[in-house]
Design brief:
The complex is a heterotrimer of chains A (321), B (291) and C (353). Chain B is α/β, with parallel strands linked by helices and 291 residues long. Chain B has eight helices and ten strands. The longest helix of chain B has 17 residues. Among the domains of chain C are: 43 residues; 199 residues, MetI-like fold. Chain C has a three-stranded antiparallel sheet with strand order 2-1-3. The chains are: A alpha/beta (321), B alpha/beta (291), C mainly alpha (353).
């Protein structure tokens, strides 16, 4: 008995000495910033998993992940496929949220619905999420891309572009979309990610290599996510949760709270439901398939991918027990 | 000692610098060839003081740069003590027209520079440099920076620096050209004084005929290119029939004047001027009379 | 009578120079104040306080013309007109707001536990710059001098350096991360890439501008190539080299903003970037001004030190400034002084009577 205990301790120590901390790059999006709660509460240490979260800009975080300098990254399911087409094998194991209004198409005064866009100009970053959102909006109204004229505008410049009158509508995400609404009086959102929930899922994505090598650790990490969502769902702790997240992005909590409703945080039940293998936006499989078709159609990349290779629900499912 | 005795004695000394059929040409901008010097030959004997004069464009600066090894020649030969000269070396000291003291070194360190290049130890170099500074009368400025000296003082230090490296020959390229007449006269006297104390051969370039005659044993007169000579060429070597040591009073002597005029005539052949026909340019204001 | 300081090639009295130096900062500040506090100068927008019957909401910023139209509309429709006050766009905060942001920036602890204070962020940025600059200098200064002094080296190195210096340093961000990881190393690398190639060309040029007759004089004194380089070329260009490096250090700062946003976010640039994203422009201005102050002060200090480093260049620092320098530099000189004293009193160096 004593002997086996000693062996266990030795094995434990060996594992610990051998394993460097897992590195997760996360960036400024409410669903991802929520991990900060687990960090500050010390839940990873509690679970005995050695993980280091690295705060980055979104673009650089993807670069670091592709270069293999971090083990995991927080991205949208569509962008995960873009990295996959560039040769990075990875699996989405935790759905943090889906965009629920934070991405929007904003029409200038006089444009009151998607139908009003017929024959008009729309400014957005061609080939990225807002383009996908616009296509979805047109489809829902029985129209196609041929009915409008696309103008390629960097997302950060969309408010000024809308104000200048050069386009009739723009596509942008929070907080840029809010800026456009404030800057152009009378402008209004005519279609948002809330109208197509599940079009844009937000993932915690792990490199396949790390997932096989450090399976036990990733299982522990997946088990922590439900604790985070519970902390944000409980009215007693929600305010503290938002305060922790606001501190991460270095803005006052009240200002940060404004970004929360546009993001639908997915708890354990939400994860299990959205990880079901079905078509349509109610499942991340369906959503990724749509994103893949969109990426191919728009020549974001030209390599056909097997979408299912990029999703692994088993980790969050294990957290159920 | 008579002047002719003196020249006989110089002629008996060994040749230090032997310039044979020296030519210098380089490709010009228009595809042609520009000749700077054409077939220049002369010899300088030990402890002789030779000056080189000529109108601008005669190649006298090119000549001294070739002697120093700073510019390559294209034909002929330059021999120092019988050995051909290739590139610059401490056996030929040089004093330039511009101020070339190293501004980051004190006066003393400037004079020590050449000695240190020859691996003379610090203390020995220092002692020796101080002696040379003493010779040019600037020992009290040893610790000063070059920028704190006057133009004349800087050239005196430059002479000390060149001599300290113990060259076989001292080349001077219009060293007093930038100085005012008073300082210039002082430095000329000073240079002759140094020359009388130091066993050194000097080739001295100048465009000032008075200076050339008063300083030298011999004056080489260079001429700019003409129909017969594609480059600057050596017109004549004029011996100066003045005794040494030289004094300022000799400037008024007949021998000085005669030599001076002879050289002047070589450099500036008489030309006919139609002065009467030149129009008078009016700088006066309306109403003024031209007087 | 000398020509006045406002004439071409004129002369300026020290007093006017000092006054103008102050004006250089006070005039832009005055213009900023005027635009911020005098309502009719610019203030192109209206900040809605009461939306009335219009489609506006409180706290919204609208263009003045639109606001006037909305008021007319309300009047003709007989509904309550919107009201509000004229403001500048949010991108131009008022001086007092920026001053306040500076003060609170330094006095409030970071929101997030374990995050750096503002001064620690600044310190981190400065250390990234310094490391980048030191590494660039260790390569760039010797290479630049060699290129300037040896024509063959210039021909071999400069064309490629000239080619690469036009490449945008930020474009190397992903590569730097792939090679050097996500911490400070890739940021330092960006600073190095941004400054090194300029440095080589600038220093090569400075070296070429060294008075050729100094080199020739040394040649006639028997200097070898190695000594020519170390004892003539290097000391000859030192004062200009020092000025070059001062200017190049300013360049390094311009790459900080991109450098700090690759890999793990850090430093003052992240602060500026993040505050801009959430439209806290008073904090953005505070951050920008801090960088300006650090740049100006460090440059002035280096210029001041430079006057003592090269006593041969003929600049005479004033007496008080000499005393100040003696005090400041004493700790640095102490080891040297002790060494000289020790050598003097060493028994082997005692002169025997």
């Amino acid at each position: 008995m004593l002997r086996s205990l000693a062996a266990l301790v030795l094995a434990f120590a060996a594992v610990h000495a051998a394993d460097p901390p897992l590195k997760v790059a996360y960036s400024d999006w409410p669903g991802w910033t929520a991990w900060e709660i687990a960090i500050q509460k010390g839940w990873f240490k509690e679970a005995g998993v050695n993980v280091e979260f690295v705060w980055m800009e979104y673009g650089p975080s993807m670069e670091a992940f592709q270069a293999g300098k971090v083990d995991a990254v927080t991205v949208t399911n569509g962008d995960q496929l873009v990295m996959g087409a560039a040769g990075k094998a990875s699996k989405g194991i935790i759905l943090t949220d889906y965009s629920n209004g934070n991405d929007m198409i904003v029409g200038k005064p006089g444009i009151n619905s998607v139908k009003d866009l017929k024959g008009k100009k729309v400014g957005l970053e061609v080939g990225f999420v807002e383009h996908l959102l616009l296509l979805k909006a047109l489809e829902a109204n029985g129209m196609t891309e041929a009915d409008i004229t696309l103008v390629n505008v960097p997302t950060n410049d969309t408010p000024q572009t809308l104000a200048s009158g050069q386009v009739d509508a723009i596509g942008a995400w929070y907080p840029v979309s809010g800026q456009a609404l404030e800057q152009v009086p009378g402008s209004k959102p005519i279609f948002t990610s809330k109208d197509a929930p599940g079009l844009i899922y937000d993932f915690t994505v792990v490199a396949t290599e790390s997932l096989t090598k450090r399976k036990a650790d990733w299982l522990k990490i997946a088990a922590i996510w439900p604790k985070v969502t519970a902390y944000l769902a409980d009215p007693a702790t929600r305010e503290d949760g938002i305060k922790i997240m606001a501190a991460r992005v270095n803005v006052p909590p009240a200002k940060y709270a404004a970004a929360m409703p546009g993001t639908f945080i997915l708890d354990l039940a939400g994860n299990l439901e959205r990880f079901a293998k079905t078509d349509g936006l109610g499942s991340v499989y369906g959503s990724s398939k749509i994103a893949h078709a969109f990426n191919l159609a728009n020549k974001v990349y030209d390599k056909p991918l097997n979408v299912e290779d990029f999703i692994d629900p088993s980790f969050i499912q294990a957290a159920k027990k | 000692m008579s002047v002719s005795d003196r020249f006989r004695r110089i002629a008996a000394r060994p040749v230090v610098l032997d310039v044979q059929h020296l030519g210098m040409a380089f490709p010009g901008s228009g595809g042609g060839v520009v000749h700077a010097l054409h077939d220049v030959s002369f010899q300088v004997r030990r402890r002789e003081f030779v000056t080189v004069v000529g109108a601008s464009g005669c190649g006298k600066s090119t000549l001294v740069r070739i002697l120093a090894g700073l510019t390559a020649h294209s034909s002929g030969e330059v021999l120092l003590d019988g050995r051909p000269v290739n590139g610059p070396g401490p056996d030929r000291g040089m004093v330039f027209q511009g101020y070339t003291l190293f501004p980051w070194l004190s006066v003393l360190k400037n004079v020590m520079f050449g000695l240190e290049m020859q691996e003379v130890g610090h203390d020995a170099a220092r002692a020796e440099a101080l002696q040379w500074l003493d010779l040019v009368g600037l020992a009290h400025k040893a610790e000063a920076w070059p920028h704190q000296l006057s133009g004349g003082q800087r050239q005196r230090v430059a002479i000390a620096r060149a001599l300290a490296a113990k060259p076989r020959i001292l080349l001077m390229d219009e060293p007093f050209g930038a100085l005012d007449p008073q300082t210039r006269a002082n430095l000329q006297e000073h240079l002759l004084q140094i020359w009388s104390h130091v066993d050194i051969t000097i080739v001295f370039i100048t465009h000032d005929i008075d200076e050339a005659v008063w300083l030298a044993d011999r004056v080489l007169v260079l001429q700019p290119p003409d129909a017969a000579h594609p480059g600057g060429w050596l017109r004549e070597a004029v011996e100066v029939p003045l005794p040494v040591p030289r004094t300022r009073a000799m400037l008024a002597s007949d021998a000085f004047r005669a030599t001076r005029e002879r050289i002047d005539a070589l450099i500036h052949p008489p030309q006919v001027h139609a002065a009467e026909r030149l129009p008078v340019f009016k700088l006066t204001q309306a109403g003024d009379e031209i007087l | 009578m000398a020509r006045g300081g406002w004439r071409v090639g004129g002369e300026l009295s020290p007093r006017s120079a000092a006054v103008l130096w102050c004006c250089a900062f006070l005039l832009p500040l005055a213009a900023w104040c005027a635009v911020s506090y005098v309502p009719w100068l610019w203030h192109p927008q209206v900040l809605i306080s009461e939306p009335g019957g219009s489609s506006y909401s409180a706290g919204m910023r609208v263009e003045r013309a639109d606001f006037a139209a909305a008021q007319r509309e309300a009047a003709s429709a007989g509904t309550a007109p919107p009201s509000g006050e004229r403001v500048n766009p949010i991108f131009l905060p008022a001086p007092h707001a920026v001053g306040q942001a500076l003060w609170t920036g330094f006095t409030t602890p970071p929101l997030r536990r374990g995050d750096p204070w503002l001064h620690e962020s600044l310190g981190h940025s400065v250390s990234v710059i310094l490391w980048g600059f030191v590494i660039a200098s260790l390569i760039g200064v010797p290479l630049g001098i060699l290129c300037g002094a040896v024509p063959a080296m210039a021909r071999l190195v400069e064309p490629f350096v000239d080619f690469i210096r036009y490449m945008p340093a930020p474009a190397f961000g992903a590569l730097c991360v792939a090679v050097l990881g996500i911490n400070d190393a890739p940021k330092i690398a960006i600073i190095v890439i941004g400054t090194l190639f300029q440095m080589v060309l600038v220093i090569a040029n400075t070296t070429r501008n060294l008075d050729r007759s100094l080199v020739e004089a040394a040649l006639t004194l028997g200097a070898s190539d190695k000594r020519l380089l170390l004892r003539v070329v290097v000391p000859g260009i030192l004062p200009n080299l020092y000025t070059d490096l001062r200017v190049l250090l300013g360049w390094a700062w311009t790459y900080l903003i991109v450098a700090e946003l690759i890999g793990a976010s850090s430093g003052i640039s992240w602060y500026i970037n993040q505050q801009g994203k959430y439209r806290a422009y008073e904090n953005v201005f505070a951050g920008i001004i801090l960088i300006g102050i650090i740049g100006l002060v460090s440059d002035q200090v280096l210029a001041w030190i430079g006057r003592f480093l090269f006593p041969w260049s003929g600049q005479r620092p004033s007496k008080p400034s000499q005393i100040a320098f003696a005090i400041v530099s004493f700790p640095l000189r102490l080891p040297w002084i002790l060494l000289v004293l020790a050598r003097k009193h060493h028994p082997a160096n005692q002169v025997k009577p």
